[in-house]
């Protein structure tokens, strides 16, 4: 049997997305790339057969990232488990936006609020000239993954200052910034922004991803409004705060910005959805 015949037989029993995830799973488990998988399929078939039980898990909605324990994000390999949000492609786009804006600047100081796996903050430290990065994460279990990913990806850990494991971690960071008279070139966050009870959230996301990473009160706006309000004063003139948001949050956030007297804009993600709320300072 050739590889394409094998794929067709899988496709008869499973959704295309499951077959695609299974290919990635094979490459990850067998530590090979897809070209090697295709050209050496016959030889690899006994090992592949032993991994076929994962097809059931994938079909029942278990995220691939949870099975293989890692994801690729903006060229980094990040450890992932059920305690942190699986980084999304839109968030990669957010990192790219910031990299473009700040690539020429030296000695950057920034904060990433609600760091989760560290996907945003770590990739920015890797790709920009960063002097100091402040990460916050409230969940102890998520924090452990964040620490692993920092260790895996950042050689100079003195660049990263962590404010962690406490429900008032935002306050602690504010006190640190105040005490040391630190201002930020920019602040970035992908906060919890889904309205509690939102019916559009898929069953797989509801079942497998941490609810504290997803949901926020007041129609999903609570974290966005609280964090932007608390941190605005710490952003350097010419800098900005940028938040990932839900696709229906543009008008309430524009209204909020107006009430606060802020100049803001919305930036579309790669799918053409108004996704990023940018407050210029
Ligand atoms: C939507 S997830 C984003 C994670 C990661 N930045 C990403 O983009 O994949 C939001 C994160 O904020 C964390 N979080 C929620 N409330 C928080 C708080 N009060 N302080 C710090 N982190 C918080 C959650 O635990 C979760 O890891």
Topology of helices and strands:
Elements: H1 3-13, H2 16-30, H3 34-39, H4 41-51, H5 54-59, H6 64-68, E1 70-73, E2 76-79, H7 89-102, E3 108-113, H8 119-127, E4 130-137, H9 140-153, E5 160-164, H10 169-179, E6 184-189, E7 194-195, H11 203-208, H12 211-214, E8 215-216, H13 217-220, H14 222-231, E9 235-244, H15 250-260, E10 263-268, E11 274-280
Parallel strand pairs: 3-4, 3-6, 4-5, 6-9, 7-8
Antiparallel strand pairs: 1-2, 9-11, 10-11
Bound molecules: S-adenosylmethionine.
S-adenosylmethionine is lined by residues 84-85, 87, 91, 114-117, 119-120, 136-139, 142, 169-170, 190-192, 212-213.
What does this structure look like?
The protein is α/β, with parallel strands linked by helices and 281 residues long. The protein has two domains: 3-60, no CATH class; 83-280, 3-Layer(aba) Sandwich (Rossmann fold), CATH 3.40.50.150. Helices cover 49% and strands 21% of the residues. It has helices at 3-13, 16-30, 34-39, 41-51, 54-59, 64-68, 89-102, 119-127, 140-153, 169-179, 203-208, 211-214, 217-220, 222-231, 250-260, and strands at 70-73, 76-79, 108-113, 130-137, 160-164, 184-189, 194-195, 215-216, 235-244, 263-268, 274-280. Strands 5-4-3-6-9-11-10 form a seven-stranded mixed sheet, with helices on both faces. α7 runs parallel beside α8 (119-127). The protein is globular and about 65 Å long. The mean pLDDT is 93. Bound molecules: S-adenosylmethionine (SAM).
């Amino acid at each position: 049997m050739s590889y394409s015949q094998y794929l067709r037989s899988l496709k008869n029993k499973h959704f295309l997305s499951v077959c695609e995830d299974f290919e990635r799973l094979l490459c990850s488990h067998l530590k090979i790339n897809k070209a090697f998988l295709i050209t050496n399929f016959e030889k690899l078939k006994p090992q592949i057969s032993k991994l076929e039980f994962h097809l059931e898990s994938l079909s029942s909605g278990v995220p691939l990232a949870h099975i293989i324990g890692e994801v690729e994000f903006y060229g980094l390999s990040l450890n992932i488990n059920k305690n942190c949000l699986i980084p999304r492609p839109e968030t990669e786009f957010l990192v790219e936006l910031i990299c473009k804006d700040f690539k020429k600047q030296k000695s950057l100081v920034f904060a990433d609020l609600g760091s989760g796996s560290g996907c945003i903050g770590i990739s920015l430290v890797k790709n920009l000239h960063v002097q100091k990065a402040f990460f916050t994460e409230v969940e102890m279990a998520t924090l452990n993954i964040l620490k692993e990913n920092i260790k895996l990806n950042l050689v100079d850990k003195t660049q990263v200052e962590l404010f962690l494991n406490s429900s008032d971690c935002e306050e602690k960071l504010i006190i640190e910034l105040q005490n040391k008279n630190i201002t930020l070139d920019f602040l970035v966050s992908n906060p919890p922004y889904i309205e509690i009870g939102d019916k559009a959230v898929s069953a797989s996301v509801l079942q497998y991803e941490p609810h504290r990473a997803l949901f926020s009160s007041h129609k999903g706006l609570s974290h966005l409004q609280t964090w932007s309000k608390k941190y605005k004063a710490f952003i350097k003139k010419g800098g900005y705060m940028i938040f990932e948001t839900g696709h229906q949050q543009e008008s309430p956030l524009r209204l909020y910005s107006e009430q606060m007297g802020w100049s803001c804009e919305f930036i579309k993600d790669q799918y053409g959805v108004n996704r990023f709320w940018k407050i210029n300072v």
